[in-house]
Specification:
Layout (H helix, E strand, L loop, with lengths): L12 H12 L6 H34 L9 H16 L9
Helix pairs in contact: 2-3
Length: 98
């Protein structure tokens, strides 16, 4: 196993229960394994969002370079990003801001 760095995290009761349930079901060998799987899923989701931004948003912004009147309004682009992120997060889930 590669070198690991320990972290201590605090979870709300419903998330702690979910982790415990996943371990008790036998789907994961430990709470650390559940957390690693969750982080891999988060990394994959963020990578998908980055690919979408590069493929869909950057070209539109490039088209706007001569001036905002030549492209889409900023509010429209922000709303499009929020809609796409909601698709990856699932309805009713919001990304936590740092």
């Amino acid at each position: 196993m590669p070198q690991v760095m320990k972290r201590c995290v605090a979870l709300p009761p419903e998330q702690a229960h979910f982790v415990d349930t996943m371990v008790a079901s036998g789907a994961y060998e430990s709470s650390g394994a559940v957390m690693r799987a969750a982080l891999r899923a988060l990394q994959a989701r963020d990578a998908a969002m980055e690919r979408w931004v590069l493929a869909q948003v950057v070209p539109v912004l490039g088209a706007m370079h001569p001036g905002p009147a030549a492209g889409l309004p900023d509010d429209y682009l922000r709303a499009a990003v929020r809609r796409q992120e909601a698709v990856w997060l699932g309805e009713g889930t919001q990304r936590t801001k740092m």
